[in-house]
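Blinded run. Sample ID left blank on purpose so nobody reads anything into the name before looking at the predicted structure. Input follows.
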Amino acid sequence: MKKAMMVLTALAFGLASVALAAYPERPITMIVPFAAGGPTDITARIVGEHMSRTLGQQIVIENVAGAGGTTGISRAAASTADGYTIMMGHMGTHGAAPAVYPNLKYNPTKDFEPVGLAAGTPILVVTRKDFPANDLKGFVAHVKANGPKLNEAHAGVGSVSHTTCTLLHSILGVQPNRVAYRGTGPALNDLVAGQVDYMCDQIVNLTPQIQGGTIKALAIATAERSPALPNVPTTKEAGLPEFQVSAWNAIFAPRGTPKDVVARLNDALVKALDDANTRKRLLDLGGDVPDRAGRSPDALAKLVQSEVARWAKVFKQVGGAK
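Blinded prediction complete.
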């Protein structure tokens, strides 16, 4: 009897190993919690294309937008934890969301299996082209003197533009008039038209307008200048080193996804980011490609923990998600 049980146990383990060895046996869905064409969607498609080749199965992008990305992430978190539904989260969905949405249906630090960091997206401080200040120091002085009279545009509560400018305001101790739009497009259109004064947003959304001279870029909130906009100084160079922020994008799986599956997904991600063409496409957009150490599941888990703590402090300082 004991020998028979041992045989059955060995068979069970063998079948489990075969199942894992076969992963993936069908296409994988990657939920992107924003509309098609945005920075997170573009990053997911670039990285997912190479990952598909490594895994031998297509990664199908499914856009599920709403509530600052939390609608799609909530849906992904509730999916079967078998590796066939993953998601591309970012700074907002897995960092700022708990501070912005008190009734959030998921916990970024507990309800996911981190796969790896895909890319960072630098943040710029930009103004209308005829804004009185031409550099960040002048901008800071002007905003401190005229805060309530100025209009800051953002793409809606919980968006990257809203969250990152909230950080800027907390550092400067100002409370300008915040104008919410339904997306980056209309907010940027009004900035170009001079209807609003300034905004904070991702380099991917702003580069064409900056290069075309329809808006002014005062600083980029990264440690080094971006090759995409080499003439734009960093916030450290421009006199505001405290304002350092990136709208990072990362892959997560639902909690309970087998570790072997997570490891295979991470391996595919690492190979994608090592690929010269994939890297070039991300860098050409102005993105930052993480180094090897920054791509591990453990590194991503630590990043999420630090970001949740950071944004909780920021929104507490400004009195909530205004």
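Unblinding after everyone has recorded impressions. Residues 10-19 have pLDDT under 50 and may be disordered.
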